[in-house]
Amino acid sequence: MSEEHEHDEEGYTGEAVLVFDEREVPVSVELRGYFQPIDGRYHWYGRVGANEQVTELVEGGARTALLRTPDGSATGSLTDPDPWRRYRVAGISTPPFTVG
């Protein structure tokens, strides 16, 4: 039996670094992504684990950061936190993780 999926998702879970201008913040992340054939680009997204430094920077107005993992880096946008203070991060580009 085969399952049909709207998107074939790939991802990364583990340690990463968010770079806000010159400030680097070690974080844990859960990332996923998929190639969107409609616009021809790769869309990636996920959550940044609760982190006081990230909260301080985002509440201070920082909404864009470079996200580095052991596999790569990409610029993403951070949005409002969930009830567990994990910020959503998303980008449209080559993702900060290996795509198989």
Structural summary, described in words:
The chain is mainly beta and 100 residues long. It contains one helix and six strands; from the N terminus they run E-E-E-H-E-E-E. It has a six-stranded antiparallel barrel. Strand 5 and strand 6 form a beta hairpin. The protein is globular.
Features:
single chain, 100 residues, mainly beta, 6-stranded antiparallel barrel, 8% helix, disordered N terminus
Write the layout of secondary structure elements.
Layout: E1 10-20, E2 23-36, E3 41-48, H1 52-59, E4 64-69, E5 72-81, E6 87-92
Antiparallel strand pairs: 1-2, 1-4, 2-3, 3-6, 4-5, 5-6
Q: Which value, in Å, is the CA radius of gyration? A: 14 Å
What's the N-to-C terminus distance?
Answer: 23 Å
Mean pLDDT: 91
Query: What ranges have pLDDT less than 50 throughout 5 or more consecutive residues?
Result: 1-7
Instruction: Output the structural class.
Output: mainly beta
Helix content range: under 10%
Compact description:
This protein has 100 residues and is mainly β.
